[in-house]
């Protein structure tokens, strides 16, 4: 089944291959948390069952508050079995985002660096 193949490819960081199989960019939706770590903001996925790429550096189209930018994305894998990976997004190319505790975010993954 295609969805299982896509999950497997995404899980090992083969974003380009997953996108080719899908015919469009693999997408993750979540909430942007305004906390920053080393200049990157945290994104919490809204669907805990959704496949998140393995740890590493990626490029993706990130949409927040009506703005979309080609952006660096960093995924850190959790050391605990019970929690998923943490997604960090570089917000430097976004203009004045609303100052609220969390914002909806959409990531269309393009490739692993």
TrEMBL record:
Domain of life: Bacteria
UniProt protein name: Uncharacterized protein
Native species: Lentilactobacillus diolivorans
